[in-house]
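Whether sequence alone determines local backbone shape is best considered at the level of individual chains. In the encoding step, the backbone of a single protein was reduced to a row of integers, each denoting a local shape. For completeness, the protein is quoted in full, as a sequence line and a line of structure tokens.
***
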Amino acid sequence: KMDDDDDDIPQLSSHTLAALQEFYLEQQQREGMKTSQGFNQYSIGSIEEDWQLSQFWYSDETASCLANEAVVAAGKGGRIACVSAPSVYQKLKEQDGKDFSVCILEYDRRFSVYGEEFIFYDYNHPLNLPENLLPHSFDIVIADPPYLSEECLKKTAETIKYLTKGKILLCTGAIMEEQAAKHLGVKICKFIPKHSRNLANEFRCYVNYASGLD
């Protein structure tokens, strides 16, 4: 009898089903936005988070705050490097026309849609960078290492120190304060960065210059 077979099929609860439908609807709306006229390819969320790559985008407010800080710190005609910090890069690109230049160093090749400003980057090979990326050629480097481990921070720190003329803005967990000071000489700021989805770990910003984040 057919009825007997039906009993073996696992049924989703109405709550789970509603949540799933809501998720698909949101996804469809986002896709619709992307194809509709006037879509901004630089807006946060235009490229979805990939949790398997330990990606967590900043909230709009945090990304704006960090982008504005970078512009001020870089100065007129300054160069800004975003290392594993794509949502700050996207916010900087929204300010197109301002007097600065920016590039993004990122493992996720989906960001290659940003053309020549995209540089493939694997923190496991911190100095495996293009020849045209000259040492100490950026006025400020903003970095958000993908993992809360000393190994990841130490390797990312090699990249940061290679790229920066001096100024560093690091975003990582509060538990990394000691290692951040050890490897980059940065101190914790009062500013508390937020993500578009709440993370379990407390997150903080660190700098090695007089910043507007205090």
In short: Residues 55 and 113 are 17 Å apart (CA to CA). The beta strands are 78-83, 100-106, 118-120, 138-143, 164-173, 187-188, 203-207.
